[in-house]
Structures are given as structure tokens and as C-alpha cells.
Amino acid sequence: MSLNREDVVKIAHLARLAIDEQSVPEYARNLSSILDFVATMEQVDTHAIAPMAHPLDLAQRLRADAVTEEVDRETCQAIAPQVEAGLYLVPKVIE
Amino acid sequence: MKELHQQSVAELAAGLARGDFSSVELTEALLARIAQHDDRLNSYISVTAERALEQARAADSARAAGQAGPLTGVPLAHKDIFCTRGIRTSCGSKMLDTFISPYDATVVERLDRAGMVMLGKTNMDEFAMGSSNETSFYGPVRNPWDTETVPGGSSGGSAAAVAARLAPIATGTDTGGSIRQPAALCGITGLKPTYGVVSRYGMIAFASSLDQAGPMGRSAEDCALLLGAMAGFDERDSTSLDRPVDDYTATLETPLDGLRIGLPQEFFGDGLDGEVARVIDEAVAELRRLGAEPVEISLPNTALAVPTYYVVAPAECSSNLSRFDGVRFGHRCDAPRDLEDLYKRSRGEGFGAEVKRRIMIGTYALSSGYYDAYYLKAQKLRRLISDDFRAAFAQCDVIAGPTAPTPAFRLGEKADDPVTMYLSDIYTIAVNLAGLPALSMPAGFSQGLPVGLQLIGNYFSEARLLGVAHRYQQATDWHTRSPDGF
Description:
The complex is a heterodimer of chains A (about 100) and B (about 475). Chain A is built from three helices and two strands. Chain A is mostly helical and about 100 residues long. Chain A has a two-stranded antiparallel ribbon with strand order 1-2. The longest helix of chain A is centred in the N-terminal third of the chain and has 15 residues, at about 25-40. In chain B, helix 7 runs antiparallel to helix 15 (about 460-475). By secondary structure, chain B is α/β, with parallel strands linked by helices. Chain B contains 15 helices and eleven strands. Chain B has helices at about 10-20, 25-35, 50-65, 105-115, 155-165, 180-185, 220-230, 275-290, 300-320, 340-350, 355-365, 370-390, 420, 430-435, 460-475, and strands spanning about 45, 75-80, 115-120, 170-175, 190, 210-215, 260-265, 295, 400, 440-445, 450-455. At the A-B interface, helix 1 and helix 2 of A face helix 9, helix 10, helix 11, helix 12 and helix 13 of B.
């Protein structure tokens, strides 16, 4: 599996990652070598095998739909890059 | 009396209980050692001296009031992946360089409650993605046995600190070998428990179906003591197992008579360094002298474990790391043009190259049209790999083999070739895919560098593994060796 320049740019966009123009060829090379390596998976027929999502095949535990934690907005926003009047600030989304 | 920094956790706990020294004296001695030696290793990202001395004073007061537990006043270091309230929790990344956690991880909370003293936060590969500690934003950690070599990763700072006697014991996390491989390369003992035994709450997520925390110490006995305080059900972790905590120290002395030790033929083939193979053979011979019976076994899908992992782990990482958006916490780029620019540049600047590679591999594997070929295929292989172990444990009680194919490699040696680096985890990764417990312990040296023996057990056999390691450590002295110059 060989990724070209456009593939890398597209994946970076999907992942919302800005990557330097000049490092695109290196990413293409490295990601392609990882995907080639991963391709050895294809050697095995897994037709009738059930996928394994959890090491112990346990289902997700549920809990009662009750309030157990109180979020302290001030504490949480103290570590935010930009806040004002209790709101997180981001660039304008709607003109 | 042995110098304080040379004493094990068990010895320190006994010394504190007898009143031979106070926790404040012990903490001061270790902080002085860190100040003296760590510039050569870079094993700590943050040293929390003030908080440590406060905790030490509190521990001494608790003891004076007759309220001391078995670990009260014993110092430790936490891998910088565990959230610590009011203290920077960086995860080895520029993304979290200024992140002061608003809460404690469950592991941190439990060990605080046990009266332990946190010396600081240890260096690690960025977001625990690496096998050499070279991907840390804070620079590489050096191996105290030879400072031109790597300590392994991702818990390289914890391993180096314990090996150099800059902490009596430390916490680590293991997603594909990140406790065991650095433990092997630094000559210490480290255990990855069964998935779900230790809470993941407040442990910054990398690959949630694989991540598990465990102890990294000088001996199996020390690891048993720490694991007992770390483990247990936590309702705040949805994959935490609701079962009683085993007594990991009670069976340490169990004799090995009749213990069937499985030797997987796939762990002793091509790619294994000859000197490492010799050390492992000798360790197995020692276990046989102690009463164990070696059995030849096979784990036929071993070669598929690393490729499978490099789909499952990046896929989960790309999802987990989507939370770093430059909005609520973490790095934010300057003067974003619009929201997309804010996301892209904050993430592009905040993450290092290896983290970006893994996010991109995971994003690709999960993208429309590729899911079946990658993620679903990998999950099916995961079952085959897990079934291999199930079949093996019908023939043996414990599996033994090398932890890593070579001793510590040189800094920079594999840094430019991701796939070569990934193969340093060839013997450890299958264990995470299956969710099994496994440990690494020192078993000898190859050209002056430590070699680790890995023991893999069936689900919930941590006490058994620690017992086998303890018997071995009573008969040998590899685990007592410490590097010159520290």
C-alpha cells in the first residue's frame, strides 16, 4: 500500500493536523512502510472469526442515570487557552 | 545499615516502622540524589520537592499517631501520564506542557491515601507512543547502565529512575510493552496486570482497549506491595473489573515444584539476539533447578501481533487524541484564522512526529471504505492471537521467554525507521492484545547491559507470576545489581 502526496494531505485534513509542506514526502514514505508492514494481516483467512473488541469479551458496565459528579466550571476553565464570562472563545464560526 | 537509596520498598517500609529513619529524612535523601544525578539521565519531567516533603511530614505525623499503613512514608515516582491535581501532567507532549490537572488519577489518589510520597513525574515517550523514550517533548531519557543507550519506552523515565536508585519504585503504563520492555532494558522488575485490574481513570488514554497501569520496582516483592495498593474496582472507569483485590504478597514463597513453564518456539527464532537467548536459557535452567518443568509450546500467530497492534492502537489513539482541539485545554496556536485553522495548527504544533504518524494511520484505517480491511480484520486477528494463549495455557501454567529481542540499543539507532522500532515490542505486544498479565525481571547481562526474562500468565494470575519471580530472585542476585556511577 503506497500513499501519495494527495493521500497524505487528505488524511492530515481528516485528522485535523497541519503538517509542513516539506515533510509530506517523509510522511508518505513512513506511513506507506507502516501500511506495508500491516498488510501481512491479509495472509490469514479470518472469514469465520468473530472480531474481539474487549480482551475479556465483557460488555460495557452500565450505571444508574443519576448525577454523581459536579463539574466546577471555574476550575476547568482555569486551564483553558481563552475564556470570557464563563465561555470558551473560538474564532467566529457563523458570519 | 544499607544506604537509604539502596533499600527496597520492603526494607524501607520496615525501617520506617522501626523508626530507624523518618519519611522526611528518606525523602530528603532521595531528592538530593535526583538533584545530583538526574541531569545525566533526564528521567524526571517534574520534581515535586515541596509537595513530597509535605507528604513526608504528614506520613511521619500519621505514624506518630499510630495511623501508619504498610506503605506510609515510602516515596515513589509517577509516570507523567497520571493526572495529578495542581501539578503539571504533560504526558511527554508539548500539547500538555502547560496542563495543570484539575483532578487526580485513581492510581494517584489510592497511593496518596496509602501514605506514599510522590517525588515527581517521570519522563516518557510522547503520549506513551514509543519504545525508546526518544519521542518525549522533554528530550530522551538515558539508560543508567550506558548513557549512550536508550532506557526503552514508553515508561523509560520510571525504569531509569528506579534502576539508578532515584526512586525506590514507580508507576508505569503498558499498552504494547511500555512497562516490560523498559524494565528489561534497565534491569528492573515491572508488571503489566490483567486488563481491568488497575483503574484507567485519570490515566491519559492512548489505546483504551489495551492500556493498563502497573508497578515498576527492583523486585517482585516490591511490585507485589505496590500492586496491592494500586489495584481494585473503580466505578469511574467503565472497564474496571468488579472483583476483590488479590493478596499479591501472600503467595510469594510458594515453591515452584511441578510448575509447568511453557517455552513458545516462536519466541526463540530469528531476530533474537544470541546473547539474550543464552541469558534466557540460563534463567529457564535456574527455574528448572527450583522445581519447574519446561514444556515446549507454540503461539502460532506471534508474527501477526505487531501488525495487528499497529492497526488497533493507532485507530484507538486517533479517536482518543481527537479531544486535543486547542479549545478547552492544552496547546493553542497563535492567531487562528478560523475554527479549522485553530484545530489544525494547534494539533500540528502540539503533537510530535510519531504521535502524528499514529493519528494518521488510525484515521486512515477508520476512514470510509477501509474499516473492514483494517480495523475489523485486526479485531479478528486479535481473537486468533488470544486463542493461541488459551490453547497454550491448557499445556502450561506460565509462559517464559525474552522480554525484548536485544538489550538496550543506541540513542538514534532506530529513531528514523518506525517499523524497526515497532519490532522491539515483538514479544510483549500479543499480551496486551489478549489482555493477559505479564512481568519482566532481570535475568543477566549481555555485554554489560541488562537482559529481561518475561513471564506471561493466564488471566488474574498476577500473584502466581510475582511468586515465580520472587523465588527466582531469592535464588539469584541479578535484581540487586545497580549501575556504576549512580
